[in-house]
Amino acid sequence: MSQPIRGRLVGWGARLVFAALLLVFSEIIVWQTPTAYDPLDWLALALIYPALAAITLDLVARLNVRDIFSVLLLAGIYGLLDATLISHITTSDLPLSLLVRPLGAQPLAFVGALAAFLLLASGRPTGLRAFVIALGVGLAWGVWVRWFPVVSDVSIPEVAIGTALAVLGIGLAAGGLIALALLPGAVDHGAAWRLNTVEWVLAGGVLLAALIVGAQQGHISPPGIVIVAALISFMGGVLYITRLLRPEGSLLEPVTPPRRPNIAGWLVPLVPLLLAGWAGYSLPGSGDSSTQSDVLIGVLTGFALIWLPAVSIVTGMRAFVLLARQGG
Length: 328
Hints:
Layout: H1 3-29, H2 39-62, H3 68-85, H4 101-122, H5 128-151, H6 161-182, H7 197-216, H8 222-241, H9 263-267, H10 270-282, H11 291-327
Helix pairs in contact: 1-2, 1-4, 1-6, 2-3, 2-7, 3-4, 3-8, 3-11, 4-11, 5-10, 5-11, 6-10
């Protein structure tokens, strides 16, 4: 095998690690139906998540994604793609079906998976901040797993807390072990994060195939496809146009080449995460609602409504200021 081809294949190790983290955050932390998937569903996920991981990492490197605004735009693109191609909820009841998961929970899942990937690739130990984040995420996860199947208009089977905790713990532990096996030295220079033409065609082909299958099965409506495509085009356009406003380099530069993950630092915060998850699941409630679920769903809905207009306004103002300075 030639050296360039071997280098490209090794680089896919990092993409597979990110794909595994995306799967854990999008399917288990944002609880979908992981305990109800059949082998064919898992095969589809095994193709779609690496494609999403490869494309988003390429865009991080290619478009100098490094600040919160560019990360949110990319996260929004990911959230729409994930909720359209996998859970098929984006077009089920427009425009309301765009809110809680496609533009709320799933973009946050992407941010979490990217942060976890950067932590593993840096080889750094975790500290107090990681424990605090783990407590907050665990508490929200427990509330979500307990109440979202009850309040959702989409059929999501309820799950026992023991099963959910086992799935989450195994998923996160597996993500760390996969990173330990595949991540160190997988990418040796910044340009290697970018896909070549063949890789773009393959990754894009997987997503296109998922779209076609979903549409043929009646899960994705043609008008919905148009709306989702328009939103993705807007976010991608803003992300592309504002790349010149950002300094050269991306979030991936400090972790190129990826280092050996600190697996102990990855596994230890799982304890407060799982304990907080159990606590969040066990909070009291009655009937088909609870105060904590109302707060969580309200926060996600508010976030989904606010973040894109806010990012658009801020990036527009930054572009205007830059142009004014250049003109002056």
